[in-house]
């Protein structure tokens, strides 16, 4: 004859084993999700400031065309990530760069950080990867620093030079935790029209 206490004890032991297995699986799943979240792809969008005015002295603001381009940048990047948008904006320490980010920063409520030394691309990349790993970051900088900045992120080293009046370039650099860095080139706003020589 079966002992009812023995059967009840076996059931309780089986139940405890199942609960331990479920608990272990949940801990493992949470740990893996946390690990992969830490290793997520960082996306850095790089552009120059919008069209500056010929007035304004040593630190000019934006021209009417530049204001339209800045608004277009805000429209184009406002919903770039359907969940959270741009996580941070870095700008060169001049008025035209700050003014270029205003429509996007207002729309996205993204914090704007001033780049102390735009020529020090190594320090900027290090900061982005340390503080914003797995996030989406916009960098508005001087045109001569765009190529070195992208190269420092191990992006394409074959970028065409930025023309003096070429304000419509937008480079998207995807930095995965493992694998090859990808560089995409897009255009926004009024297209750049090269001047024809007489």
What do you see in this structure?
By secondary structure, the chain is an alpha/beta fold. The chain has 2 domains: 1-38; 40-187, Phosphoglycerate mutase-like (Rossmann fold, 3-Layer(aba) Sandwich). It is 43% helix and 17% strand. It contains 5 helices and 6 strands; from the N terminus they run αβαβαβαβαββ. It has helices at 4-38, 64-78, 95-108, 121-131, 143-152; strands at residues 42-48, 88-91, 112-114, 136-141, 169-175, 182-187. A 6-stranded mixed beta sheet has the order 3-2-4-1-5-6.
Give the rounded overall mean pLDDT: 85
Indicate the proportion of strand residues: 15-25%
The CATH architecture of the largest domain can be given as: 3-Layer(aba) Sandwich
> Total number of β-strand segments?
6
CATH topology of the largest domain: Rossmann fold
CATH class term of the largest domain: Alpha Beta
Q: For the record, what is the CATH homologous superfamily label of the largest domain?
A: Phosphoglycerate mutase-like
Helix- and strand-based class?
alpha/beta
Coarse shape? elongated
Q: What is the H/E string?
A: HEHEHEHEHEE
Query: How large, in whole angstroms, is the Cα Rg?
Result: 25 Å
How is the main sheet built?
A: 6 strands, mixed
Contiguous runs where pLDDT drops below 50 for at least 5 residues: none
Q: Strands of the largest sheet, in order across it?
A: 3-2-4-1-5-6
Distance between the termini: 109 Å
Structure annotation, total helices: 5
Estimate nothing, just give the exact number of structural domains: 2
